[in-house]
Amino acid sequence: MRTGTLVVVLLGTGCVGAIGGGGPSDDSAPGATDDPAAGPSMMPGTGPTSAAACKGGIPAAPAYLRRLQPEEYVNTVRELMTAPTAAPQLEPPVGKIISQLEVEKLSAAAAELVATKGHLTFAPCDVAGAQNSMCADSFIAAFGRVAFRRPLDTAEKTWLRGVYDQVRGLQVTPPVTFRESLDTVAQVMLQSPQLLYIRDEGVVDRSLPAGVRRLTGYERATRLSYLFWSSTPDKSLLDAAEKGQLDSADGVRVQAERLVASPRARKMVKQFASSWLELDGNASHPNLESFEKDKARFSYDSAALRTAWRNEVESLYDRVFFEQGGSFSKLMTSTESYVTAALAKMYGVTGGPTTGSAWVNLNPMQRGGLFTRAASLAVQSTADTQDPIHRGVYVFRHVMCQPLPDPPVDVDNTPPKPLPGQKVSTRQLVDIKTGGGVCVACHSVVNPIGFTLENYDAMGAWQTTEKLTASGVTYTVPIDSTATIPATDLAGTTMGGVGLSQRLAASAQARDCAVQGWFEKALARAPGDADTCLVDQLKTRFKKNDDLRDLVLAIASSDAALFIKEVTP
Amino acid sequence: MSQLNRRRLLAGASLASGSLFLPSLLGDRAAHAQAPAKRLVVFYTGHGPVTGKWELRPPGMPATPQSEWELPLGPLAATDFSKTLQPLHPYREDVLILEGLALTSAIADKQGNNHGVATGHRLTGAVAGAKHVSFDQYVADAVAVPGRFKYLGFTDNGGDVNNAGFYDTAGNAVSLARCDAFYGFCANQFKRVFGSVGTSGMTSPAPSGPPTGIELSRSRRQASTDFLRDQYQRQFARLGTEDRAKLSLHRDMLSDLGKRVAEFAQIKCEKPTDYPLNGSPLRGKEIANVILTKMFPTAMACDLTRVGLFSHTQLTAADVGATSGLDVHQSIAHSAKTEPGMGWMENYYRLHVDQFAKMIAAFKSVPEGSGTMLDNSILVMSTELANGGHDLYRMMYLVAGGKNLGLKPGRYLKYAETGANPYNLFKTSPYGDRPGGNYGSTSFGLGPAHNRLLVSLMQAYGVDRNSIGLDAAVGTGYLRDVKVEMTGPLPRLKG
Questions:
Q1: By the CB < 8 Å criterion, does A107 face chain B?
Q2: ipTM above 0.85, yes or no
Q3: Contacts of A105 in chain B (CB under 8 A)
């Protein structure tokens, strides 16, 4: 999740040149080290693309050990074992360090996966036959190359051959079969650090500044594959690495375009959308599916409707990203909606599907863009009412990337309730509660953003009036969704959610924030000082072409993705 | 060697890097079998009961915070129990009900809001967010058997698997397993715990005959963990300090797993014959019931673990009789000072006490020596806060069992709330309060720090500690010479 307080400092000058390909080549680049996994020597065009243009140098950051996430592991072993329906049960990660539970589940998963026999296809001989050391070596090399995402080094081959030798050497009755020996080797490999963890080591390249290492083709393949497919590199990627085709930024871009064109990339984009919209829950609110709403008030709520909410926003991001030129403007203003019959009814759309889902156009006076849809509105609400404070904070922090301090400790965060005899709106209650003392400094900035979304109730349904209760007496008040936003380039009087969306579509800061979000997604780290020039280039390019897809490809083939900073053990 | 079966030898494939299949483990287990195992279960819940409603106030006993007294529970009728505590009545001879303790260390902690500090402090007595060891892990170190689960921790479908950031004494995070549909149902957790265990008897005959598929699989799991340990070690040279720590801990966990796989093959006990609700999603309170009344009693009767943790997150509005979908935190817990919120929160805690009572019954149903497993176990129920209003004093603690661990159950213990209050230590002047505070406790005295209960519990298991977490809160400014001590065991638990 992106941190709301992280602000990229814009230097913004002196940065010219291409991003992500076509950079100056370096014919004098010497070969790499003798690392057996490094692939061929550096070729023309392998040098950094922005080093010459950016005075800050190559945007390389240290690479740290990263454990595969459960989804990545599942995808990886499905590919590896040719078992597309394998569904090993894993534990959710609890932090950077693996837990005992995760270790247990991974161990059990390895045992179950071996039973699928998928690994045996890597053995170039009859596995039902007698023990066969040569075949075992071939199996170790072939299975290892896919499992470890690179060719095994000599020590690894020796280690795994040792496993094989020990198992086949057991004096048992009946004797251990060849297949059982290979099973044990595979089971060991499935739990090995080389498979479960990703850590880029890179290779020394004397054409680079001191302390900067070039990622090998295999490491670049791994980065690309886990970014776009959340899985291990396929045969084409490994072959491209082996042939040295990933030693240049151009070559990386070619493969990145291949991966993003695959249907497998669509899940990544949908997951990015869900994560951005906080649909999976966080410390402030539960996930979309388990967020309890007032059943008496919203009797039409159902699990199917929640699914439709998520599907709608994920589908919209997907459609814009892949089919509509990746247009950020469109994402912010589109009235297209992928609805079920229940969601169409909630949106007041006629002509929607009777079964399944279909694309329709929503009322442009009520809806426009991602942030006027039920999913994003419902998670930034309470069980029974809209929540302008949290909606405003969300947009300010996560759509505009603006820093906002946390509220004081032990702040009374209970939703304001009308006093007996009061007939005030939610908006007025919020104003009363946050309009004085230390609250006003921040709330005067975030509340107006949230107020523009007052036409959407706790479910995200359209409302022009709202019902509140004071001391058991229910009253109705009109909705006022016009607000004057005081800060950022959203500033100005804004009418409703559609007005807010139009301002977001025109906002340079919102675009910069999108660059930051995708940078963090693609590189699994926040931009640092060394990335300033690159990020500026990305921002400039994105403002010019308004293309999210190109943005992701540019990041994935940028110097920040191709080089790392050396870490001293 | 000719008669040795394949299972044992496949497991013995690990001999090159150190055997895990050792007679010494059996000897260790045999030694432990001489004396009954000592067990601990900690059941911790969200929010808190209704202050003024859960306590027992029998005639003749002073109700003032300053009073200190003790009440035998045996003679009391069910109607003498508060609505909240009534589910404990059938087990009144088995419980200690403690009134008056304070989360003193949390009051002294100036970080975060009361939910945050209470959650962080309740098992550690220490500042939230730091790498503090929870008391159950000190106990686990004292009672755990090699090759068994050092502890089993669970939470419900909404729970934090990171367990509020508690750590064990080696610096590993204490993580909780989620028992919900997304993470594999309760059935999978039962398979994880009991899947490798035999079926009857407690002795292990020498293996003979062809191994079953399960046995081969188990053996391969054990062997593979052995082969892997060295490989994890080999990676260290290339890593920085932080990354090396990640792999080092992973290696150690693999080692523990290998031992357990070997050990569990030798254990035979009356494990569950069918796993509860295989494939059916459970929610909140249902998960708690399954873990507290089936998982922990059975796993502990089989001596697969000796420490159990269950973190219960928030109940639903429907669970407590409120309008379904009502915001439990804001509209129920925070509204517990008046009706209908008060009634809802009474229901809330009656439900948790009932869960606790059912666990007592399950432990009591297992004969052990001349008594039951409950005599050799301590079951603790710890609420997050004193009440729905975020107070951190006059907490409700329930302690069950422990007769053979030095406790004298069957009593209600009211502690005097006359001790120093660390809140006052942070006043900026004799006339001013700490700004921004909403700690619920200001000028009055406090009962004993809950750290002292944790110390008593640790000592019951032979842990040689006289304190946990924060030893004392020291004043600032004009109160800089004032200290609020939080060390030493809690008096009166032993009678």
A1: yes
A2: no
A3: 192
